[in-house]
Amino acid sequence: SAGLDADDPQKRYIHEAAQRICRALKEDFLPYLPYLLPGIYAMLRMQPAEVVDPDAEEEDPDMTVAFLEDGKAVGLKTAQIEDFQSAVQLLACFLEVLRGHYFDHVQETAQCLLPTLGFRFSDDVKRQAVQTWEELVRAAKEGLALRGIADQSLVADLL
Tell me: the pLDDT tens digits for 1-22? Predict the structure, then answer.
């Protein structure tokens, strides 16, 4: 979905299809992760734009604005928030289905997912990110068990 416009409805269909295919293939879906995860990570790395005058009439009405501690205002468009949510949902699906088999991707996923735990533009996205983090911890634990690794420091780092 990388070559599609931000508000292209095909993106949603592609993400839903990826989830269905993952659920159907289970561990056989693993070879596709290296092609899908970079796009998902890119969506999670999306940064809000600074909003100069959040009260101005000409500001984009399709923008959700949040205020930072230093008084600055930042915003994301609704389509960007939906992309963010879709990325979290994709990760949640992959983790739920693949569990310990997702182990090779746990650390990079954790690095990209961690900032979403404080997502200030949508409580739903933040809640889904926390639930996805729980799945990530479970995948790490099960991945260590699958590999016969007794060292649980990775799990401790995630907690």
Answer: 556 666 677 888 889 999 999 9
Neighbours of 24 (CB within 10 A): 10
Q: Is the dihedral of CA 142, 143, 145, 151 positive or negative?
A: negative
pTM of the model: 0.87
Beta bridge partners of 73: 51, 67
Token couple for 129: 């990110």
Helix (H) or strand (E) holding 132: helix 123-146
Beta strands in 97-152 (DSSP E): none
Query: Locate tokens 């796009």: which residue?
Result: 39
CA distance 102 to 159: 18
Give me the helix-helix angle, 10-25 and 78-98, nearest 10°. Answer: 10
